[in-house]
Amino acid sequence: MAVGVLALQGSFNEHMAALRRIGVKGVEVRRPEQLESIDSLIIPGGESTTMAKLANYHNLFPALREFVNSGKPVWGTCAGLIFLADKAVGVKAGGQELVGGLNCTVHRNYFGSQLQSFETELSVPKLAEKEGGPDVCRAVFIRAPAILEVGADVEVLADYPVSSDNLPSMATRGEDKEDNIGPLDKVIVAVRQGNLLGTAFHPELTADTRWHSLFLRMGEEIGERRLQCITTNSDDHPKGKGTPDLPIFE
User: Fold this and answer.
1) 20: domain range?
2) Which family, according to UniProt (predicted)?
């Protein structure tokens, strides 16, 4: 399996290092044609506006959307999560182009400025169930987004409680009135929807490689399902003796 890491800006080197720790070689991706030679893609954290400008400059958005729609695994961390969201609020004036595909609404800078970055022990029983290890993981939130709502087809893997004690003020977060965000007692910070994985934090900055292992396992599961589908389809129409080689149109 060839794992690509979008290497326009942000923590792509850290993802490459995390992949090496579990014996996988990553491929840095900067051009649309490079997406044709990889089986899965990580969109790293960074500055989402800058990443979007660079992606536009290299004409990557059409190829990224095609990759997402192909069913191949894609994982977005922090800024990468914003890229994958169908809708983003709290964005800069003029909006921001998104890849889309993940049925959720993301607040671009929910946890505040760089000064409000933090680390925490995050409860992740679903990750532990799939990958073993403890029911918590060390989560690094750097000027982080948060998922405000998800569709019915999205599996929530982790959430984080919010209160006036651990959340910046509305003014600090720079929220717009049109965002129409009501009071929340928790926000979602990790999700999966089919071939898409999203985390608001940075697993690549910790020694815990279970999120990367989970992502690789997603690729194996999708590959197995495709193989099963191909096998089932071929069995449905067995070729008898004397069947012509040319296709038969019904």
Assistant:
1) 3-231
2) Belongs to the glutaminase PdxT/SNO family.
CA atoms of 21 and 40, how far apart (whole Å): 18
Whole-prediction pTM: 0.84
Domain assignment present for 38:
yes
- Residues 96, 88 contacting (CB under 8 angstroms): yes
80 is in an annotated binding site: no
Indicate the number of domains in the chain. 1
Q: Rounded to the nearest 5 degrees, what angle is found at the Cα of 14, between the Cα atoms of 8 and 16?
A: 80
Measured distance CA(63)–CA(101) in Å, rounded? 13
Residues in the chain: 250
What does the DSSP 8-state code read for residue 36?
G
- Kindly report, residue by residue over 70-95, the tens digit of the pLDDT: 999 999 999 999 999 999 998 877 77
Residue 245 lies in a domain: no
Digit-coded pLDDT (tens) for 138-151: 999 999 999 999 99
From CA 188, how far away is CA 222, in angstroms rounded? 25
Residue 213 annotated as binding site: no
Amino acid at 56: N
- Whole-angstrom distance, CA of residue 187 vs CA of residue 61: 28
Q: Which of 15, 78, 104, 175 is catalytic?
A: 78
pLDDT for the residue 75: 98
